[in-house]
Structures are given as C-alpha cells and as structure tokens.
Known about the structure:
Distance between the termini: 42 Å
Number of strands: 12
Strand order of the largest sheet: 1-8-9-2
Radius of gyration: 19 Å
Strand content: 15-25%
Number of helices: 11
Number of domains: 2
Amino acid sequence: MKIVETNDLSELQSGTRGRMLNESESFEFKCHPGVSCFNLCCRNLNLFLNPYDVIRLKQNLGISSSAFIEQYTDIIVRPDHHFPDVLLRMADNEEKTCPFLTDTGCRVYPDRPHTCRAFPVEHGLFYDAGKNNTRLVHFFRPPDFCQGRHEKTVWTLSSWEADQEAAFYNQMTVRWAEVARLFQNDPFEGQGVNGQKGKMAFMAVYNIDAFRDFVLNSSFLKRYKIKSQLRMKIKSDDVAVLKLGMAWIKMFLFGLKVGEITLKR
C-alpha cells in the first residue's frame, strides 16, 4: 500500500474504499490455510516498500541492500513526484505471484512488509497542518474475494497490531512518511531524482549498506557531527543508519534543524 497524505480527514475517508476504524472499534478477520482464498492476495500486487521494509527483507535473505534492490524491486519515478517509489517486483510467471510465495506460504513471513503485516487493515496518513504532526489512520479494507473477513475472530487496532508485531513498523512508517511529505516540493534544483542529490537521497534511506559505507569511509564525519548515541550504533545497526539518513535528508536537502546531525563549523 502507498501511504497517502492529506490535511483533510474527511477527504481521506471519502476517497478510500473501506470502513474507517478508530481505536475503540473492532473488526472480524482470520486468515489461515483452511480458507478458500488462502494466498490469493499474494498475486499481481503494486506493493510499495518503505525503507524499513527493505531493511527487514534484506536481513532475512542475508543479502546487501543494493543486491535486494537490484533483484527484487522496481524503482518508479512518477510524473510530478520528486522521490522514487520502490515496488516489490512480482515473479515472472502467469499469476505474477509475490517472489516470496511458496506452496506452504510466505518464506519471509517474520519480516514481511508493512502492507502485508497490516492486511486487511490499510493505512492512510493524516497530516494536521495546524499542529504540524502526522499520524496514521486506519481502514478495514479486505478485497471482495477475501473469505477471512467472514471469520468470527474479533480484533481491535491495538490487538491486531500486537498480534502482527506491527508496532515498530507503524512507527517507522510514520517517520518515513514525514520525510517523504517534504518531497511534495522539488529540492533538486531541476536536476531531478537521477541527479547527484537525488541519488544521494535515495541511497540514504533505501541503500543502507552503501550509505553506511559513505558515512564511515568518506569525509562525511569531518563535515557533520552526529549525535554520540546514534554514531555508536551506525557501524552495526541498520535502523540507526536509516534514522541518520532520514535526518540527513531533512537537513541537507530541506535546510531543517534536526537533533541527530549538525554541520561542523
């Protein structure tokens, strides 16, 4: 799912098929091999990957972030968009199945992307301009063929999030969405996403291994002061590198003050 941003909650609700859920509402759902549609939802998808999705998947597969991007993704630059979208590349077969789908289910299930983890709940992004904050809003939106929606297991948003171990995914999705929102404006001075700055920005959040190498083995640390707690983690912690990358984009491209990194004088 692509996170959609709006500053009008009624617009988000009216433009999305499905029932909007608040924290106190419940829904019924259960997916298991006994339902006739089991794994049908793992086919022919436009499955957008957030940066944290890529971290979890490349770690699961034991490959570098650059290898994952090359082998498993399509990078799409849409007209009037100032940052690429990263989509999971479907398998080259008749049904265009997810590349991780097997006869017994998902082979990367513990590290499945946020969209899969949240299903059948979909997320929208609500940006409150008055308060300058961002939060997820939620919709119960199973496809018409889904038989799991007729099961009688009852969930709330919080119990579903806990069951799917999605809390940190949700946090990282909001954190990335706050950065992605900045790209409503073009920071690349006409060079586009394939210019030097565009490639650096993409590397900072999607190619974590390359960005770590850039930080540690270029003049980066001579030019920038990184918060000590974060700097200690970047050698081995991919999430720390991602947090640094997002902070660097805010400062480097948009001139925002951030707590994680400052320019040395």
